[in-house]
Write the structure tokens for this entry.
Amino acid sequence: MVKTAPPSSSLTSSPSLAEDHRLAFAGQITAAVGAALALLGPFSEVISGIGIAVLILGVILSAPAGNHPGPLMVDWWSVLAIGALAALIGFGLGFWLPAVGGIVLAAGSVAALAAVFFGAPVESE
């Protein structure tokens, strides 16, 4: 009779947790690229719109690891989501009030970039 070792119950050895961290890191990188593209709004509204879409996709991809603190920012995902929302509102507002919309879009994009910079790489608790 062969005895086998019981499966490890540690959360850190779980492959799904490691996959969540990789997906969250990819989402953070995607959000950073989107925020950088959104800041190019004065050059092209199309590029800015694509940047907002990529930023929102990055927020969605990084959501599974939102409760895990980063090395310098504990609540990084909330800042990322609020920054993406502000950038989206600023993009829409820019069609009616270009100066105000540009300021709101820039502030949201910078907040999203700060959340990615201070929240990546995602670490387990």
